[in-house]
Structure formats: structure tokens, C-alpha cells
């Protein structure tokens, strides 16, 4: 018989409470219970031939000891779990590890399952949006195996199956969205996709931890149209800002003209200030045939 130290991966949050609360088992728990019952009954009914093979395996291990240790001793890393099949049936107790354990030659086979988070890219999908725009969208999915026994017995390749499900889920979700929603609501779309994937991969013993939308590529014609629209919008805003500036400048000039009209001395000071600016910009001689004092006599 295979011996190993079994570690409990998950602890119930109410394990230390004295009050017992009835909990409805999930579909995964029901699947685990039924699978364990089937495996237990299958091991109980191995039959005479099975017990004979088990006894012969023990005899073979004893005769070839210590050379049999090279075949019987197996090591499982901290991030791995081992599912052992004896005569085609899973041994009671579920997955083994981490640590050192022993198997029987010829009748036991072992499958190691990696529990670390795995990532894969969803290939770019050509999707027709709700407003009849064709876009190419790709994503990245983060998933891990949380039940090694179910992942081995219920699906052949968990990562490949999850990748195909992610492709179809991405197409189904984005097909109901408009182009504006796809460009602006990436986080909401990723969360919705994660929920659908997690629900679909639960019977496989796989947990989808995160989904991210990497890139949304538009056709060249659509890019040019959006660029032209954005440029026209910017030009329109620039014209509006320029018109508002002219309006404010006209109001300020009108107020300045009213102030100068109320004070003739201010007009003379403005005239002298203009002369100062002219002399500073160009080193040339400027002759004014009419003195500024005669302007008041002309007005009279």
C-alpha cells in the first residue's frame, strides 16, 4: 500500500467555532463525495486476481530490496500533488503529497499535477460587435488546478480545454457589446469573462483567477475614420476657444477705450509709451511734425 503524509489544502472558516451551521454542498463537493464513494467501493471489490497481484508486488519489492527503492520511492514537490492509480483505480485518500511516498511496481501508476498558477494567451479573435464593427481582440488568462483528482479524471488536458473555453467565451461576450463599450469597459468585460470561465471550469477542478484584455485592434478604415473624427473635434474646440478669446479681448479693449476717453492725460501717456516701444525696436530717427500739444488746440 502507498504511504504518505497527507496535508489538508483548505481549512473551513468555521472549523474552530462551537456552533455548527448547516451548509449546502456545492456541485464540486457533491462530485468529490460521489467519486470517493465509487473509488472506495471499487477498491473493496478488487477481486481475487487483484489481491494476488498486490501480494506478488510486495514479494517482488521484498526480493529485490534495496534496488526496488529506485522504482518504488517517489518524491512530490511542494507545488505538486500525485494521483496514484492501482489496477486502474484511484487509491482512497485522494491526491498524495508533498513529500516522499512509495508505490508498488507493475500495478501502480502515478500522475503528477502542478498546482501553480498557469497563464496562456487567448489567440486574437475576429469579433463582430453589436454595432456591426469587426475588431480583433486577444486576452490572457490566469488559472490553477485546485482539485487534482477531478482534473485528472474529468478532463484530458485542463489547460487546452480552458483555452478553448476562453476563446468561445470571449467571442460570446464581446459579440453583445458595442465598439465604445469594448474600448471603455475592459475591466467590466474581463470580470464578466472570469465569472463565466470559472463557472465552466469548476467541474474540471480548475480555478480561473484572473482575465485581462490585452489589445483591441481595429480595421485600418475604422482607424482613419476615428482619427478624422477626433481631429475634427479638436479643431472645433480650438475654434470655439479662439472665438471666446476674441470676445473677451474685445470686451477688455472696450473697457480700456472708455477709461482713456474719460482722461485725456491717459491718451497722452499712451502716446508716449508707443513712442518708447518704437524707439526700442528700431534704431532709427522718427520725426513727428505735429507736437502732441497741438491736438488739444485742434479739438477746440
TrEMBL record:
It is found in: Membrane. It comes from the Eukaryota. The chain crosses the membrane at residues 51-76. Gene3D superfamilies: 6.10.250.2090, Band 7 domain (3.30.479.30). It holds the Pfam family Band_7. InterPro entries: Band-7_stomatin-like, Band_7, Band_7/SPFH_dom_sf, Band_7/stomatin-like_CS, Stomatin_HflK_fam. Residues 13-33 are annotated as: Disordered. GO terms for cellular component: plasma membrane. Its main location: membrane. Keywords: Membrane, Transmembrane, Transmembrane helix. Residues 71-230 form the Band domain. Residues 15-33 have a biased composition (Polar residues). Belongs to the band 7/mec-2 family. This is Band 7 domain-containing protein. It comes from Adineta steineri.
